[in-house]
Amino acid sequence: MESEIYLNILNHIENKMKSYPENGDRDTKWKFFSDLDDSYRIPEIVDPILEGIWLPNLILTGQFGKYVVKRLDSLDLKKDYILFNGKIREGETPVELDRKHYGRDIDKAFVQTWLLFDDSNYSGRTRFVLENYMIKNHSNPITSTVVIYNGSPNFHPQINALYSWYMVHGWK
Question: Considering only CA atoms, which of 115, 149, 141 is closest in space to residue 38?
């Protein structure tokens, strides 16, 4: 059953990637990836991932993060989370929009493990900025990242992607 869910997610992304504007300008490509990110906000993609994430502490961002919070509530999954604003990779300063904790207080000064669950990774900037924020403000590092789509040409051992463009199509 798990492999069927994974294949459905891969097929979803592969079908979307068929319309990638290979010769498009920067704005056209940016719009394509924005639409691709929007397409992940469905229970068929998010729910199986949430149910499979073993870490109880999630870092979430932007519209995708807001959707994940709704799914956590719908699925009655008791995971601590901090929801940040979006557009961090574009230079926005991280702002905590919401947080929920079921166990220990998030602000205690002992190390907890946090997992960044995001729709996509391109440059790694979102993770870098949020990891620095978490260490500075909560004394807690981000130990792992799970994304649905990884478009970074660089290999990052802490980033786990369901679909990696360069793994499928070759590293530069």
Answer: 149
All domains of the chain, ordered by start, with CATH? Answer: 2-17+27-169 (3.40.50)
Q: How many helices (H) and strands (E) in the chain?
A: 6, 6
- Output phi, psi for 8, to 5 deg: -65, -40
Burial 13-24, CB ≥16 within 10 A → b, else e? beebeeeeeeee
Measure CA 1 to chain center.
23
Q: Measured between alpha carbons, how far is 160 from 172 in angstroms, rounded to an integer?
A: 19
Instruction: Note the pLDDT tens digit of each residue in 6-42.
Output: 788 888 888 888 888 888 898 988 888 889 999 999 9
Answer yes or no: is pLDDT of 92 > 70.
Answer: yes
Q: Determine the angle formed by the axes of helices 2-17 and 43-52, rounding to 10 degrees.
A: 130
| 170, two tokens | 């070759």
| Model confidence, pTM | 0.89
DSSP H helices, the chain, are: 2-17, 26-39, 43-52, 62-75, 125-138, 165-169
